[in-house]
Amino acid sequence: MRRRGRLDIINDILSIATDGAGKTAIVYHANLNFNRADVYIDLLLREGLLDLVDGPVVRYRTTEKGLEFLRAYRELRQVLEDSSGK
């Protein structure tokens, strides 16, 4: 099994948070520990790819900019897979 790169992890987090997700859901579904999740969540919040959702429980949601990242990332992955003959 190959190690995931930074962009793969970002893709996972943004995909999980598309409809809103708590930190625990992100940790479990993205297969991260809480410390590593905090680092990525902070980065994504700063860059405007992830947003905090108002409510009694802290939840994160992928922003429009984050959705654009997901589309571009998937297109790039498809191009790379097509060019490598997979």
Task: Explain the layout of strands and helices.
Layout: H1 6-16, H2 23-30, H3 34-46, E1 50-53, E2 59-62, H4 64-84
Antiparallel strand pairs: 1-2
Written description of the protein model:
The protein is globular, with a radius of gyration of 14 Å. With 86 residues, the protein is mainly alpha-helical. β1 (50-53) and β2 (59-62) form a beta hairpin. The protein has one domain: Arc Repressor Mutant, subunit A, CATH 1.10.10. Helix content is 62%, strand content 9%. It is built from 4 helices and 2 strands; from the N terminus they run αααββα.
Concise summary:
The chain has helices spanning 6-16, 23-30, 34-46, 64-84; strands at residues 50-53, 59-62. By secondary structure, the chain is mainly alpha-helical. Strands 1-2 form a two-stranded antiparallel sheet.
